[in-house]
């Protein structure tokens, strides 16, 4: 029986683990299918407070993990397949193991969608990114592309145009999901060229670094190659909330909904990080919400000593 089980080992989960461990709650962290979360897939992080020279994403995560372990957090590999939140102790299934918890922090994160192209994952942090706020700065004065046709793609294109020498907005259709105001803003931006309807067939690279994209026009099949230094894939995120469907409140996109702070409709279950945040999605906001969830769990355990 664990006092606190934390699902997820990204920024939110690890911060929750540090706080819960320092509160003598000996948390168990279930690492999930992407241990370390999205930070483990990035290179330099320059906007996490406290690191004036920046820090590598995997190093930041490793530091947080060590910090949590130092205070007594325990880690187990594996993804949660099922949870029973109908009564306490909660039951959490990972593979053949079932863990019991007096309180639960869900910090399972969200995964950025990728295009599904060969070699794409290996290029993350090497010219391919899923986060404009994190990586835009590295492409000052360089030609880059944003792939996608939703609000995220428009927002990232506008944001990145302040760094890029030229920005190609590549979308597979001529119609956009993005709101009109966001499209108009991007169209009025002299640095942005709309490349539609084009599908990305390949992300080209040389010596392991992105140096272009190979596209085809989706109606005529005509090929086009564009030389560039960076590709930002902005085709949406999927919150890792499948195991909580029908058990915790979520919006139509699967993001968990907090009632107040990190509290959910199930007393003793708290949520933190990107699994409940489609707006800010930053390491520092995830860490902040992880801290909130740990404090809320501590207060809950204090009030429910049964
Ligand atoms: P989204 O609205 O679902 O748009 C995803 C886009 O990616 C679509 O244009 C889609 O193309 C394209 N796409 C999906 N899979 C693809 C693939 N395999 N290959 C190529 N293209 C692919 O996602 P989002 O833009 O991340 O927005 C998510 C939600 O957050 C939306 O409700 C949005 O309004 C909101 N949001 C709001 C703001 C804001 O208001 N400031 C900013 C960001 C996000 P198709 O259209 O052809 O399917």
How would you characterize this protein structure?
This protein is α/β, with parallel strands linked by helices and 306 residues long. It has two domains: 2-112 and 237-303, FAD/NAD(P)-binding domain (3-Layer(bba) Sandwich), CATH 3.50.50; 121-233, FAD/NAD(P)-binding domain (3-Layer(bba) Sandwich), CATH 3.50.50. The chain is built from six helices and 19 strands. Helix 4 (151-160) packs parallel to helix 5 (180-187). The chain binds NADP nicotinamide-adenine-dinucleotide phosphate (NAP). NADP nicotinamide-adenine-dinucleotide phosphate binds next to helix 4.
What percent of residues are in strands?
A: 25-35%
Shape: elongated
Largest sheet, described in full?
Answer: 7 strands, mixed
Say what the CATH topology of the largest domain is: FAD/NAD(P)-binding domain
Overall mean pLDDT score?
Answer: 95
Order of helices and strands: EHEEEHEEEEEEHEHEHEEEEEEEH
What's the CATH first level of the largest domain? Alpha Beta
What is the number of domains? 2
Low-confidence stretches: none
User: What is the count of helical runs?
Assistant: 6
- Give the CATH superfamily of the largest domain: FAD/NAD(P)-binding domain
Structural class: alpha/beta
Helix content, binned percent: 10-25%
List all distinct small molecules, including ions and cofactors, that are bound in this structure. Answer: NADP nicotinamide-adenine-dinucleotide phosphate
Radius of gyration, in Å, reads: 21 Å
């Amino acid at each position: 029986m664990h006092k606190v089980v934390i699902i997820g080992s990204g920024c939110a989960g690890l911060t929750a683990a540090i706080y819960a461990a320092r509160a003598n709650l000996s948390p168990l962290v279930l690492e999930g299918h992407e241990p370390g979360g999205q930070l483990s897939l990035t290179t330099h992080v320059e906007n996490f407070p406290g690191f004036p020279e920046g820090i590598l994403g995997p190093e930041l995560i490793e530091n947080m993990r060590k910090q949590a372990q130092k205070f007594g957090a325990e880690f187990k590999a594996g993804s949660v397949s099922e949870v029973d939140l109908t009564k306490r102790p909660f039951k959490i299934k990972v593979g053949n193991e079932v863990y019991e918890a007096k309180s639960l922090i869900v910090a399972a994160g969200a995964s950025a969608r990728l295009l599904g192209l060969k070699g794409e994952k290996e290029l993350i942090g090497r010219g391919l990114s899923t986060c404009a706020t994190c990586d835009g700065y590295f492409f000052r004065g360089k030609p880059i592309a944003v792939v996608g046709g939703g609000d995220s793609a428009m927002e990232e294109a506008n944001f990145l145009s302040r760094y890029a020498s030229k920005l190609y907005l590549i979308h597979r259709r001529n119609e956009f999901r993005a709101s009109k105001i966001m499209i108009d803003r991007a169209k009025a931006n002299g640095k942005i060229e709309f490349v539609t309807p084009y599908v990305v067939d390949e992300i080209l690279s040389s010596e392991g670094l992105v140096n272009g994209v190979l596209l085809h026009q989706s109606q005529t099949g005509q090929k086009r190659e564009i030389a560039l230094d960076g590709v930002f894939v902005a085709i949406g995120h999927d919150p890792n909330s499948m195991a909580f469907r029908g058990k915790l409140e979520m919006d139509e996109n699967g993001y968990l909904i907090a009632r107040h702070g990190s509290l959910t409709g199930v007393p003793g279950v708290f949520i933190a990080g990107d699994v409940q945040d489609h707006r800010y999605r930053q390491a520092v906001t995830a860490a902040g919400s992880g801290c909130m969830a740990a404090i809320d769990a501590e207060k809950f355990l204090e009030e429910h000593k049964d």
